[in-house]
Amino acid sequence: MKTNKRLTSLDAFRGLTIAGMILVNTPGSWQYVYAPLRHAKWHGCTPTDLVFPFFLFIVGVSMWFSFRKFDHKMNSNAFRKLAKRAALIFLIGLFLNVFPFYTTSFETFRIMGVLQRIAVAFFLGALICLSAPRKWLPAMTIVILLAYWGIMALFGGPDPYSLEGNFARTVDIVLLSESHLYGGFGIPFDPEGLLSSIPAVGTVIIGFLVGQLIDLGRSMTQAVRNLVGFGIGAILIALVWDRWFPINKPLWTSSYVLYTAGIASVLLAFFYWLIEYKGWKKWASPLVVFGVNPLFIYALSIILVKILIYVIRWQEGGETMTGYAWIYQHIFVPLAGNLNGSLLFGLTYVALHWLVAYLLWKKRIFIKV
Q1: Which of 194, 256, 264, 272 could be a cystine partner for 57, CB 3.0 to 4.6 Å?
Q2: Which phi and psi (to 5°) does residue 319 adopt?
Q3: 315 φ, ψ to 5°?
Q4: Taking 90 as the threshold, does the pLDDT of residue 314 lie above it?
Q5: What confidence tens digit (pLDDT) does each residue in 198-253 have?
Q6: Which of 254, 259, 356, 258 has its CA nearest to residue 303?
Q7: Local structure of 151: helix, strand or coil
Q8: CA 248, CA 166: separation in Å to the nearest integer?
């Protein structure tokens, strides 16, 4: 079953993921957030912890279809395009880290980030998928995941999967220095660091293989069965592996790769069955609007937040009031209280960006990076 048309189900799944990324990044107040919209404190996985690996998984699925123009093989033209796209995504990520520039100390700014990881995982995953024989890709993915487990176990501290003792942190400190790492964990540690980007490449390759399952399956029903079968199997393996290599997003552990890719496969199968097989497409239109300009909408959401926090600010009662805090406290808290107001703020922010995405979609403007 060769799929020549654009997959609406994949666009809808991507759109849901982008909406989730914006929602979990922008509560009205971080003091008031419902538990499912928070990351796990360390080991474990909440719905919020699914969002980023879903996006990388989708990157991999999309690669299968977009690489048809290269006949799924590496050549000089393919390499130039991959390198250019990865570099551009990485640079946009750096721009978002330092924006607005007058608030940034270039001696301590963070180098890595969400878009930087996407760039690294996309580039390395694409190189592998286009250069290696396709039949080797499953084995290579297994090797990547096992090798990362071995590196973390052998070279970490007494507790190799702890915040303080993990080897990924050591590598980032040596290569990037403590001053350029994320500080949100209380100590210098980057959840989108260099070493932990290796298993993220595995997430991309799995997505690529899932795209192959969809495209080359004998029928749509066979594709759905394959996706569900793989997804359930990956989840079960991950839950067993969790006993020795815990499911952990900040470390992007190998069990986390399988767990999240498994759930993503089952969800994509559900979207594919509803939209492509059953033909029920109208309900997914709002998600597709988000899904066709994903990186632009994500970057816009970060820029607007930073403007509201760092640019729009004033003194009120002897304290600094930001535009972000003022909107939450003076509009959403009176409407719905602290906790529900915080959620309503996030949902409204998602809706605002959906309107921007809708205008672009309506005018058939697709901003490709």
Answers
A1: 264
A2: -125, 155
A3: -90, 130
A4: no
A5: 999 999 999 999 999 998 877 899 999 999 999 999 999 999 999 999 999 999 99
A6: 356
A7: helix
A8: 12
Residues in the chain: 369
CA distances 266 to 3, 256, 259, 358, Å, are 19, 15, 11, 28
* Of 291, 266, 250, 190, residue with least CA distance to 52: 250
Burial 256-280 (b: 16+ CB within 10 A, else e): bbbbbbbbbbbbbbbbbbbbbeeee
Domain extent listing, the chain:
39-280
Q: Give, in order, the Cα–Cα distances in Å from 209 to each of 198, 219, 230, 320, 328.
A: 17, 17, 11, 51, 43
- Asked whether the beta carbons of 245 and 286 are under 8 A apart, the reply is no
- Could you count the other beta carbons within 10 Å of the beta carbon of residue 235? 18
Please calculate the CA angle 197-202-203 and round it to the nearest 5 degrees: 90
